[in-house]
Amino acid sequence: MPEAATLAPLLGVKGLNAWYGESHILHGMDFHIMPGEVVTLLGRNGAGKTTTMKSIMGIVGRRTGSVTYDGQELIGLPSNRIAQLGVAFCPEERGIFASLNVEENLLLPPQVRDGGLPLSTIFELFPNLKERLASQGTKLSGGEQQMLAIARILRTGARLLLLDEPTEGLAPVIIQQIGRTIRRLKQDGFTILLVEQNFRFAATVADRHYVVERGKVIDMIPNAQIDQNMAKLHEYLGV
Amino acid sequence: MFDFLGIPPQALFGQLLLGLINGSFYAMLSLGLAVIFGLLNIINFTHGAQYMMGAFGAYFLLQYAGLSYWWALVMSPLLVGATGIVIERLMLKHLYKLDHLYGLLLTFGLALIIEGLLRNEYGSSGQPYRIPEQLLGGTNLGFMFLPNYRAWVIVASLTVCLATWYVIERTKLGAYLRAATENPTLVQAFGINVPRMITLTYGFGVALAAFAGVLAAPIYQVAPQMGANLIIVVFAVVVIGGMGSIMGAIITGFGLGVIEGLTKVFYPEASNTVIFVIMALVLLVKPAGLFGRTA
Questions:
Q1: Which of A98, A100, A110 faces B190 most closely, judged by CB atoms?
Q2: Are A112 and B187 an interchain contact pair (Cβ–Cβ within 8 Å)?
Q3: CB A31 within 8 A of CB A40
């Protein structure tokens, strides 16, 4: 990547509005992510974090405003074109296909760019998956399904990963493994947008946190200053 | 020669063969319906008309272009499949988010229009279509006489059905198809052009019906209502097999053809209703069908 490009945000979101049918969910989201950053969206249930991800990916009903990826406008593109540009989505419900075995699930997303992780590296990160390639996708445990959902978007060459609550409902030991994986992916140069309820977990992996309330970004806290802002965060998140 | 329960073997095996022939058509048609329903969520009532269009396609290709049966076997499904693609692009794609009923009404209406137009032109009596000369005659198996063309129909149907099963259950393309049947939004968000896949799937299902129509042309006469008569039984087959399963559609298709044939031997009075009796029983015991997945 040329030097000048690294100075521009990889993802820029400006004045993003989104609707599900009649209900207006996002009211002018503004934020950006620099290449190689791990950024979280924090906020209470229903604040619009997941909708923001789906709007970036192009899978909500209607959206206005601007979402740019690597300088290219995404609003108006169908989701398959957005994926082809190098954006990958790991949904909250994981989206493991019951009629596909683990291997088919893993190999389903097509390669969109060079530079995805080779399968050997993926099995190094998630050794459980290698042993269960022939199992039906939904026969895996919740933690294994989450690993599979992350693993399958690592080999496509996508550079921006949208991870929606990857730790939800998982045992602490699995959460730690996912934390290690995210830090490793950052080292490998992936740019990651993370939606989290669990800000203690978020603080172990992220560079910056955006606080979302009623479909808007209301604050940005660099991870280095998270301790000074603890009281404020507690108030925002109601924890 | 031996008798089985007082039935002469010629009659028994003759009906068994007829059952397998009918089963070949049930299997090909219910397979197409199952594939279309899986991905499009549309109960394709035009299927019978599209089978009939396949047979008429063979007839037209011979009459107006002088093309033989073997050409028709390739070209008629391609042409009828192309009309399916036009129907999907222009009409069906607007219905996916609505209730099943709308798709059913639209495709039922289309079937009536297509059948009506051809009946207006050709009347309801059938046009003859000859068996290709390579398949004339038959083989004496000792216990029965097997016409070559009928053997060919069974082999062709089995081959096409099993090839379709293989592609859907064992290949990458099939994995896309199965995944998109479960969650099209996510599959598209992985970078796959799902709308195009849906269009091609409908085109394929329709082409499969037309292929069955070409196979049927030399056996039954080429007539505008040939599909309407068959499709009711095929829907019963689909209900018995269950909508979700590819292999289920194939096995149920052949199986019910054979059961129907055997009923003609042992209790001819019930041969027209046996499939519907089985359908009622299956619905009582296993509402999702023998091979269906309950959602």
A1: A110
A2: no
A3: no
Burial A177-193 (b: 16+ CB within 10 A, else e): bbbebbeebbeeebbbb
Residues from chain B that touch A84, judged by Cβ atoms under 8 A, are: 191
Mean pLDDT across chain A = 94
Out of B179, B181, B189, the one facing A59 most closely (by C-beta) is B189
Inter-chain Cβ pairs, chain A and chain B, closer than 8 A = 58
Rounded to two decimals, the pTM is: 0.91
Inter-chain CB proximity B189 and A83 less than 8 Å? yes
Residue A84 CA to its chain's centroid (Å): 16
Backbone angles phi, psi at A210, to 5 degrees: -105, 135
The CATH number that applies at residue A56 is 3.40.50.300
The pLDDT tens digits for A46-84 are 999 999 999 999 998 899 999 999 999 999 999 999 999
Residues of chain A with Cβ-Cβ distance to B187 below 8 Å are: 108
Q: Which domains does chain B have, with CATH numbers?
A: 15-285 (1.10.3470)
Q: At what angle are helices A142-151 and A172-187 packed, to 10 degrees?
A: 10
In chain B, whose CA is at the least distance from the CA of A155?
B190
Tokens of A209: 């946190």
SS3 B119: helix
Tell me if B175 and A104 make a contact (CB, 8 A cut-off): yes
Q: Which of B173, B177, B188 to mutate to test the interface with A (most CBs of A within 10 A)?
A: B188
| First CA to last CA distance, chain A | 41
Mean pLDDT along residues B88-104: 92
Q: How far apart (Å, rounded) are the C-alpha atoms in residues A185 and B10?
A: 72
Write out the two tokens for B207. 């082409």
Looking at residue B3, its pLDDT comes to 63
What stretch of H or E contains B110?
helix B100-122
For residues A235 and B183, what is the distance between their CA atoms, to the nearest angstrom? Answer: 37
Domain containing A112 equals 3-237
Spatial distance between the Cα atoms of A117 and A115, rounded to a whole number of angstroms: 6
Domains identified in chain A, total number: 1
Instruction: State the nearest Cα–Cα gap between A80 and chain B, in angstroms.
Output: 4
* Partner residues linked to A64 by β-bridges: A17
